[in-house]
Specification:
about 300 residues, 12 helices, globular, TIM Barrel, single chain, 8-stranded parallel sheet, 8 strands, alpha/beta
């Protein structure tokens, strides 16, 4: 019987950390990892969308994961997103992740070409086969990948004995209940992670066992509190906190720069961590964004004082 306990909780999507020249900064990677250890989050999702994965080389993604694992020292669940458009590159990252002892690997479908569901299943299974002793998680984000995880494709993927969950970032929370219903049949241990941060409460109500999100990392205290409120059936407070989180996310998205540039800037104000900006073609912040960043940091602190 597979163990899903390592996946139950709040798992921030890890941010790419750069130095002043835009190169991966191993010291910053380890410092950010230790910060999340101190915040007692459940785990980290490394080299996903929030980690700017499609703009990083295979070697850069290896380097980041190595330093996350080193700094975590077994205290966090580590899920490594390994998908590349090239299957061989994905397999290389999968095998590397398994060699480091991560809990799971994850993958979006290949993008750009419109592939058949058979081709997508073969792609995912080929990646999983490169890490034969590691759990596998499908990352469903149709609004960005251009591919939807349909129920027929999902049922086909359930033949893979390593498939343990779906990170569901589709905008319909109904998908969470459907994947849970099909994935857990026969008392099979299976996890569905809520993806859209603005719908954490709704996703958990619909059956998500935990969440993986790009803004968790900038305000982990608030998502941990929200998860606790849900577990204790305090729906009124949970609704109020989700609304406040959503207001903060809207503010993070109001900058001229990319959301993740804003998140790193807020973390710099809140923690002193220097994580750099984002990699082009993502846009970095401008001087005009400074008031918005300061306001977001203040809102997070006020919410922590109010709810935590």
């Amino acid at each position: 019987m597979r163990n899903i306990e390592p996946y139950l909780g709040v798992i921030p999507a890890f941010y790419a950390c750069y130095d002043a020249k835009g190169k991966i900064n191993p010291e910053a990677v380890e410092a950010l990892t230790r910060y999340y250890v101190e915040k007692e989050v459940k785990g980290l999702y490394v080299n996903g969308s929030s980690g700017e994965c499609i703009y990083l080389s295979v070697e850069e993604r290896k380097l980041i994961l190595e330093h996350v694992v080193h700094a975590a020292q077994g205290r966090l669940t580590i899920i490594a997103h390994v998908a590349c458009n090239c299957t061989r590159d994905s397999q290389t990252l999968a095998a590397h992740a398994e060699s480091l002892g991560v809990h799971a690997i994850a993958a979006i479908p290949p993008i750009y070409f419109h592939l058949t569901e058979k081709a997508i299943a073969e792609y995912w299974n080929s990646i999983s086969a490169a890490a034969p002793n590691t759990d596998f998680i499908i990352y469903n984000i149709p609004q960005l990948a251009g591919v939807t995880l349909t129920l027929p494709l999902f049922r086909k993927m359930l033949d893979n004995p390593r498939l343990i969950g779906v990170k569901n970032s589709s905008l319909s929370v109904q998908d969470i209940s459907l994947f849970r219903d099909v994935g857990c049949r026969g008392n099979r241990p299976f996890v569905v992670f809520n993806g859209p941060d603005e719908q954490f409460l709704a996703g958990r109500v619909m059956g998500a066992c935990g969440g993986i999100g790009g803004t968790y990392g900038v305000m982990p205290e608030l998502f941990e509190k929200l998860d606790s409120l849900i577990s204790h059936n305090d729906w009124k407070t949970a609704q109020a906190l989700q609304l406040q989180i959503n207001r903060i996310i809207q503010l993070l998205q109001a900058s001229e720069g990319d959301l993740y540039a804003a998140a790193k800037a807020v973390l710099r104000l809140r923690t002193g961590l220097e994580l750099g900006g984002v990699r082009p073609p993502l846009l970095n912040l401008t001087t005009q964004d400074a008031p918005t960043i300061a306001q977001a940091a203040d809102m997070i602190q006020t919410a922590i004082q109010t709810y935590c």
